[in-house]
Give the backbone structure.
Amino acid sequence: MLKAAVFARSPLPAVMASAAAYSPLATTFSPQMRCFAARGFHALTNMSSAARNSANPAGTIPAFFMNQQTRLLNVHEFQGADIMSQHGVRVPLGIACKTPEEVKAASEKLQVDGEVVLKSQILAGGRGLGHFPATGLQGGVHICTAEEAPKLAEKMFGQQLVTKQSGPEGKPVHWLYVAKKMALAREMYFAILLDRASAGPMIIGCSEGGTSIEDLAEKFPEKIIKMPININTGPTDAQLDEVVSRLGVKSHLDDAKKQIAGLYETFIKCDCTMVEVNPLAEDTEGMLIAADAKLNFDDNASFRQKDIFALKDDAQADPREVAAAKYDLNYIGLDGSIGCMVNGAGLAMATMDIVSLHGGSPANFLDVGGSASEGQIVEAFKILTADHRVKALLVNIFGGIMKCDVIAAGIVAAAKQVNVTVPLVVRLEGTNVDAGKEIL
């Protein structure tokens, strides 16, 4: 039997005032910046800690958000390389494979001095220092002989790769990228992301890159390049000169500027929230190569980036988020124990802030929007109750466009279909609140 505590006509202004006082996001963004800031905020959640710390030096994004993936599109390395190459960016030659047999054929084709680079493809960074718990294999990226590649592939395909950015459960490896081995003389770090302080793109770079960039940024922050870019004009020639110089490039300067310009073009024309190249490498001839990159794309641009969004790999996403997207629910899975269902992103974030402020831990961000149907409410409950970590459910609804009686009817319908075994607290205010109370 469903048991719920129902709170109606609670003092919402007081609740929101408390949330505003606590929430950095609520007080940092002006109304005209909300959309832009949200785009930049989502980019922050997916970048390396080096770029993230540079973009968020005051720690103004709540920690529980900074550690989570979002529903913004993230593509695999081989897909990102193809996208960047279309904008003139130099990338390594490689072939994406789905079976050991394909790995063997690709390795025979791309070997240099009998060796290739075998890269696991997951939507998380830190692959080189990751590990496969099931097979005991250390490292998701290997330089190996063409003969060894298929044997290594057998230990990687279908396995969970755990990295610093994947979470303890890791990510499944369904693709391997066989790349031509390159002779690299030097590694750098380069990224473009959205900066709310300057209200535009920002270039972040460092003349040193690779797997130790996070430690470098922490110990020597003065080495990090941070350059705001005017979104209306793009980087000037003088800015490109400065970036190339501070990256330590000594030869082929005009070509290096074209590579930086190509990365910026990728960022703008593909509606990216982030382009992170680590390493941006210099070969033995002094030419720049985007040796490895991570690209994120703005969901709001999916209507005009159909080819890019067709690359989405649901196997890499939180299954709860995949299910929510099917029913047009705005859901982000977290790792707390209090499931939250709220209408409106602002109220949802304020609710999560208050839960955290009082010692709780939100299990999710779930905004059902202003026009959710009874069926969507039922599906939302199915997603929330399927999470084994959820020990209680909190429904916080301010009925404006969203009517309280629709929410209440959805809760009752969900109780009939879903075995709700945890405490349920429902707080209703606004349109049709009395009818909603009667239904409950």
